[in-house]
Specification:
Blueprint (H helix, E strand, L loop, with lengths): L1 H7 L2 H29 L4 H28 L2 H6 L4 H12 L9 H17 L20 H14 L3 H7 L3 H8 L10 E3 L2 E2 L9 H22 L3 H13 L6 H7 L8 H15 L8 H25 L1
Antiparallel strand pairs: 1-2
Helix pairs in contact: 2-10, 2-13, 3-10, 5-6, 5-7, 9-10, 10-11
Length: 310
Amino acid sequence: MCGAYLNSLDAMRRAEIYTTVGYERLERKNRDIIALLESNKKNWQQTFFAMMLRVLGGVDNKEAFTTLAARVRYSVLVRESSVPHNIEALLIGASGLLELYKHDEYILNLKRDFVYLSTKYAIEPMSAKEWRLSRIYPNNHPILRLSQIATFISQTPNMMDRILECRTAKEVNNLFAVETQPYWLTHYIPASSSPKVNKRMGQTKTNLLGINLVAQMQFAYGSYISSEILRSRALALLEDIPAEENSIIKQWNSYGKLANSAFDSQALLQLAFEYCHDKRCEECVVARRIIAQQKRAERRGERKGEEAKR
């Protein structure tokens, strides 16, 4: 019913609803980011790093990537940024994942370097059991993502500033379209060779980073320092990125093209998760309008009935 109602509205009235619930979603995510900031002792650089790892972890490994971000601090990676191999050794070594696979010369070098670096920085590796690896597409394997992160950090010394500067989907794509270290071009998992394939982050993933990292951090940091420029930049970026494609948005779009931009799809996700899921119809801006419309129709019907009796 709600999807049909939204589809019946003109663009202006639908945009009014999207603006209301879209801001709700931004504010809700802002609270999550501020909580993460507090846990990081108000260190924005570390919070940007932790959020990046959370987004790249996706649904399956969000918590594992968050744990890793706390084990290997961003400040440590910056200190080693002149040697990309060291960043990779720190991230992949601390993940504990190397213990699951056979070792070739490259992997043995990563392990040896991690032993030295973990002692230097007092880093305790995670258990491989903390990661979900079943039903993971090869290009989403955590080890490949960690290699991409290592490349990104080594090539982006001022990560926070670069993220805050992004204005368009193209700029986000250019920022995050990084590859793995060369070894992984012929490997999906350690010590198991495969045909050579570029393992660059694709546009679908960089769009998700634009939605869930770049725009959210621009809005959160803009709110924190009272910068309407950054908050407006976040909104403009969401309008520039295409709508997400997932089962929930597909269901909304079955009533018509309801999501054209990422701002639209974020608004629809807010409706689905915060209102539809918990049946909070009395508090929902869409449901209230539908109910008001029905009541107006009932009153018109009653008036017509009274006129007919006369």
